[in-house]
Each structure stands twice: as C-alpha cells, then as structure tokens.
Amino acid sequence: MAFPKLVTERLILDQIKVSDVPLIVKYAGNSKITDNTRTMPHPYYEEDAIAWINIANKGFEEKNNYTFAIRSKSSLEFMGGIGLIINKENNRAELGYWQAEPYWNKGYTTEAVKAILHYGFETLKLNKIIAMYLTTNEASGKVMVKNGMIKEAELKDHDIKRGTTLADNAYVSLIQYRLTKSEYHSIEK
User: Fold this and answer.
1) Distances (CA, A) of 95 to 23, 41, 153
2) Could you tell me how far CA 107 lies from the centroid of its own chain?
3) Mutual angle of helices 46-62 and 21-28, in 10-degree steps
4) Are 139 and 93 in contact (CB under 8 A)?
5) Which residues, 6 or more positions from 41, have their beta carbon under 8 angstroms from its beta carbon?
6) Residue 162 to residue 144: CA distance in whole angstroms
C-alpha cells in the first residue's frame, strides 16, 4: 500500500524522505524546537533523523505509526513533522507534531493538525485522538484549541526530559487534550 498524501490549502503531508535529512537536522537541531518537545534529543544529528525516518517507515508498515513530513505546497520544502501513534487495542491515537521555527505563527501547524485529525477519524476510523504538550509550550496548546480539542488532564512531573548529561534530566509536566469521534463530527457539521 502506498504511503498516504494529505493535501490542504497550503500544505502537503506525505512520507518523510532521505532527501529531507539535511533540513530535518537543521530545523530539529534548533534548541527552541527540542526544548518544546517531549522526546527530541539535543543536539540533533543526522543519525537521529535517519532513525526517525526508519521508525516512521516501520510504523507505517505495521499500521501503528503514521508519521508525515509537513511540506510547503508551493515549494515542497520540508517544514516539520506530524503523526499519529496508534493504540490498536483501544482504537485511539496520540497526535504529535513539530514545526520548524521559520514557519511559526503562520497557521501551518493548525492546518496540518486539522488534516491529521480528519485522516485519523475518517480514514483510520479512530474513536479518540489525544495530544499533549509541555506546560512551557502554550503555542502548541493553542493549536489544539483551534482544532476543537478539549482539555482533558494536567499531568504533573509526568515525563523525564532527557538532558545531555544525567544531571540535566528534569521532570516535566504536560497538558493533555482530546477529541473523540463524536466530538469531531459535531465540530465538522
């Protein structure tokens, strides 16, 4: 089965390619990105980008991880990543995303999330999609709200944010949002 391609007004969401590695490393190497994500390492190396691509490809094959590149529709340039990690047993997914700093505050992430929610509910037939953000990254929460997601939980000291040394590790708190299939359909009407 071919990897899906989602098209919005300004974006194309499609498979991450090896040719994207230089831009992935450049953009993900920005500490403003890694500081605001739960799992991205810093510094970010070529090996990290290749591992991410491999995880995405394996996840697509196994139908438990749908990770897309976010691209400009006009230039096809890589702008970030977005995806759904599927929990098949409970018919739900966790949404995650990151956007390169040059594309912040232009509505691209909101547009990409809208497309992924549609894909998750309409194509994958999921019952629920959740998303979490670090309490220090309120912009991510705004994207969730703009897409009709509902605040569900505050998770105190929930994850360990890995530093470059063990002494740099720190507990971080998260805010969780949700959207169920019925909530999604009530928004789409």
Assistant:
1) 22, 19, 15
2) 15
3) 110
4) no
5) 34, 48, 162
6) 25
Residues contacting residue 129 through CB under 8 Å, at least 6 positions apart: 84, 92, 93, 94, 95, 117, 120, 121, 178, 179, 184
CA gap 180, 162 in Å, rounded = 31
Q: Crossing angle of helices 108-118/138-146, nearest 10°?
A: 50
Tokens 């394996």, located at residue? 58
Predicted TM-score (pTM) above 0.85? yes
Say which amino acid occupies 64: N
pLDDT digits (tens, 9 = 90+) for 47-98: 999 999 999 999 999 999 999 999 999 999 999 999 999 999 999 999 999 9
Pairing, β 65-72 against β 11-14:
antiparallel
Give residue-wise pLDDT tens across range 160-184: 766 555 566 778 889 999 999 999 9
- DSSP class of residue 84 equals E
Distances (CA, A) of 86 to 62, 96, 146: 10, 11, 23
The pLDDT value recorded for residue 40 is: 82
Distance CA 189, CA 107 (A): 22
The residue with tokens 């697509």 is 60
